[in-house]
Amino acid sequence: MTAAPRFAWAVTGSGHELEESLALAARLPDVDLFLSAAAEEVLPMYGRRLEALRRRFRVVRDKTASAVPVGALYAEAYHTLVVAPATSNTVAKCAVGISDSLPTNLYAQAGKLGIPSLVYACDTEPVVVTRAPHDWVTLRPRRIELRNVALLREFEATEVLASAAELEAALGRRLAALGLAWLPAQAAADFLAERGPASDAPGPDDDGAEGRVRRPGETAA
Ligand SMILES: Cc1cc2nc3c(=O)[nH]c(=O)nc-3n(C[C@H](O)[C@H](O)[C@H](O)COP(=O)(O)O)c2cc1C
């Protein structure tokens, strides 16, 4: 017997709307998180560690050049793809048909299989106030970012969302269409409370060891 299909939720390396996106993911039944390599770096900078994510979700890391885990889409393991938050990098790649990371491969293959995709794009407004790890920053997305979002809106089987409220509404519609329901709010609250301290950003001399950042002047052990 095959297992019931699940949500495939791709997380990219965006600090913008990261918490809001995870808060929605935590309220859904049966979600697997697929992290881009950048997401894996950025998540701990916002206090979200892999071990804590794994207590709530099945977590798939971007460790293969050919996006091996995407094969699960062919096995009908997923009824919906969510990309949230989606960096301007991932949006740009998706909009021109590039698939060279876990999220972009999921998006391309979901499209070819007719699996609906919900993409929460970061850069959708002329001015975006975004959360850096320790501060708030005002950004002005360029024409190219706004153009890529517009391009993506034209793709088949794709809904592009411009706010967490829009994503929540789209997920609500998807749940209803699938005959599913949101989990009780407490399920998300427990997960969200697990946020740890923000880790430092990897420095220029980062030796790549998991969670270990070498300071200038410090040598490898
Ligand atoms: C702390 C931090 C926060 C970031 N936040 C954003 C963001 O909000 N939006 C964005 O487009 N890129 C952001 N980036 C840059 C992306 O992580 C970078 O472009 C990366 O190459 C994206 O790769 P991905 O699209 O495969 O996840 C951030 C980087 C760091 C270090």
TrEMBL record:
Region (Disordered): 194-221
Chain ranges passing through the membrane: none
UniProt GO molecular function: catalytic activity
Xref: SUPFAM superfamilies: Homo-oligomeric flavin-containing Cys decarboxylases, HFCD (SSF52507)
Signal peptide: none
InterPro entries named among the record's database cross-references: Flavin_trans-like, Flavoprotein
Comp. bias (Basic and acidic residues): 209-221
All residue ranges annotated as the Flavoprotein domain in the record: 6-129
Protein name per Swiss-Prot or TrEMBL: Archaeal flavoprotein
Originating species: Piscinibacter sakaiensis
